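Probable cobalt-precorrin-6B C(15)-methyltransferase (decarboxylating)
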Amino acid sequence: MAQTQLPHDAKAGPTKPEVRAVVRSKLALTDDDHFVEVGSCTGAVTIAAARDAGRVTALERKADRLETTRKNLAANGLADAVELRNAEAPAELPADADALFIGGSRNYDAVLDHAAETGVDRIVMNVSRLEVAGAATQAFRDRDILTEVVQFQVSHGYELAGATSFDSENPVYMLVGSASGDTEADR
């Protein structure tokens, strides 16, 4: 698996590599899929998806972050592999997405409405704030699209006084859903 290079940064920072690995697993992208990311920021998830999906669209409302995505795509040899849109979702969301990643919590209700209306098969939303995780979980339930909630925390070891200690990242709440009518048992 190719390493993702992120030489260009954005204030929000990238989705961590371990979290991206779980996102990729939950999305289970194939070369037949149209993947859409809302809130591309550094492009870390977009880059991973561009290696798996046949078609990729990334939306980012902030022009400077979209430029960061563009630069990081180029640094990974994927400059022409992704359609970039400077828009605030749900505006300009494609109606033919097979898989959707929501990287931020802004307007997620409207994004989930769009996903439910268009029958997106695989939906993943990452949340780092507890209150948003609870509200977003309820939003998935209200639309009858919730299939799974995962909470995890990554810690990296470092040397401390000749032994190993751990530096912990913030926990991530991952909401997984489907608006296609398929259940997990059907997949």
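thats it. The chain has one domain: 17-180. The chain has a mean pLDDT of 91. bye
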